[in-house]
Amino acid sequence: MNYVELHCHSNFSFLDGASHPEDLIERASELGYSHLALTDHNGLYGIVRFDQAAKLNNIKAVFGAEITLETGNHLVLLVKNENGYKNLSKLISITQLENKKGNARCRKDGLMNHSDGLIALSGCIDGEIPEAVLNDDLKRAECLVSEYREVFGQDNFYLEIQHHNLPVHEFLCGELSKLGKKLKIT
Questions:
Q1: The model's pTM
Q2: Mean pLDDT of all residues in the chain?
């Protein structure tokens, strides 16, 4: 199995990504990636440029976004099919319209109404599940996994593991791996 980066920000994710979408694809090509996801914050701003560059480099572009929930936590949503793209676009539009500029927050009922065709990842250290794990609230983490599996489907929710060489990530990755095995998340 080859590595696929499913949580990647471009310069359209202000203060969180610095590379142009084309540069991300170029680097993915250099590394021999077959796929790459673009998951900018609360928007699909760079996907046209990303898709065009991906086609030129024979890389499968995966569209998505890292949305901010009403709690302030993050959740990564990946497009699985055309209906998923429509639902993600609707979610982002609703979220942007219902909130002040620069403060987009997605309500959980919005996720329930627009989850078809989407795959959800538990998110970075700012996700609800990683936050529960870091707060030593494994019961809450398990409940959240159940909630997300119910919303997105058993096979459309995954725990996201990120390691940026920080001590807290070592602990978090270990605990998320244990949680995944316990709850049979493949």
A1: 0.95
A2: 95
Question: Of the candidates 100, 144, 104, which has an alpha carbon nearest to the alpha carbon of residue 121?
Answer: 144
- State the Cα–Cα distance between residues 183 and 175, nearest whole angstrom: 12
Q: CA-to-CA distance for 14 and 34, rounded, in angstroms?
A: 26
Closest CA to 24 of 54, 44, 55, 48: 54
Whole-number Å distance between alpha carbons of 9 and 21: 9
User: CA-to-CA distance for 120 and 182, rounded, in angstroms?
Assistant: 19
Closest CA to 64 of 93, 41, 39: 39
Q: Could you read off the pLDDT of 92-131 as tens digits, one per residue?
A: 999 999 999 889 999 999 999 999 999 999 999 999 999 9
Mind listing the pLDDT tens digit for each residue in 129-157? 999 999 999 999 999 999 999 999 999 99
Q: Which of 91, 50, 54, 87 shows the shortest CA–CA distance to 69?
A: 91
d(CA 31, CA 25): 10
- The residues near 124 (Cβ < 8 Å, ≥ 6 apart) are 7, 66, 74, 76, 130, 160, 162
